Amino acid sequence: MQKSTIPNKSHPLPPGVYTPVLSLYEPNPTQDIDHEAMYKHAQHLVRGGMHGLVYQGTNGEAALLSREEKIAVLKNIRKAVADLGVPDYPIVAGVSGQSTNESIQLTKDAAEAGASFGLLLPPSFWAKAVTEDVLRGFYRDVADESPIPIVCYNFPGVTSGVDLNSDDLAALATHPNIIGTKLTCGNVGKAIRLTSQFTPAQFSVFGGSSDFLYPTLAAGGVGCVTGMGNVWPKSTARVYDLYVAGELEEARRLQEVVASAEWACKKSLALTKFGAGHFVGKKIGFEDPRTWYPRKPYAPAGEKLQAWTVEVMGVLEVEEARIPDRVFKGKGTNGVNGSK
């Protein structure tokens, strides 16, 4: 297929593995945001080699957070990465609203709070009314007004089945402020149809989880956004690092282990949060399991599923332990993924 001749985007999303970061809560009846826990978790993920962080996506329980909470979280995280010495580290914010008006406001809030990019789901409240014209018009209208570049987020499981197909995404790729897509639909064929038309500089394709990261990269994609990064950031990031270094056999071996561990994340967000609390909570000083609960009305995992999660995710414990932390020598001296 002939490659597109559209211009390269002026601010593309850097390639790599991104974590859609969990929202952590105070262990009190109203489950207020625990900003200290989120600050330390963010720094843990960056030290673990993540190439970027995503906040207020599906794993971040965006639908359960207020506008004010979203702004406060982003400001706190921008401070967390700046304090590590990487002030320009890529932070992506979920900016998904049901109306065009709300989504535009969320992009402005995110930009002012320190986010570099916006991740946008399609509207879905009246799914039958989301025609092709409505869908494409929504993205274009938001992108027209957004002060930050937009990544199209395709996850039919949380949008009443509304699914951005490859024709939709190819049409949206021509917009100068729409820079790529995250395919949580898991459709590698869709990824190939897009990468056959566009270079990453024109329109980047990211997988929506790490269990098909290797196939995504082989298909011409540039990375993934994976909930597994909340638990095992070093191992998930390393699949990408090995692949781009040309160590394909080792990348594939590690991919197989990562895919096995991520099965727990596929079951439910409650299991992702439990796994993160179990394996990461002690490392960052937040061992109270309630910090890692979903926000009500959603319930934490029961004991049987907790035990199963430890077993399934635990296959990466040895891998994670032998990968060193990324070390920072001071502000501006050891950039990450394009940071200065």
UniProtKB/TrEMBL annotation:
Q: Which domain of life is it from?
A: Eukaryota
Spell out the protein name for this chain.
Dihydrodipicolinate synthase
Taking the record's annotation, the residue ranges forming a coiled coil are: none
The terms under GO molecular function for this entry are:
4-hydroxy-tetrahydrodipicolinate synthase activity
Pfam families cross-referenced by the UniProt entry = DHDPS
Q: Which SUPFAM superfamilies match?
A: Aldolase (SSF51569)
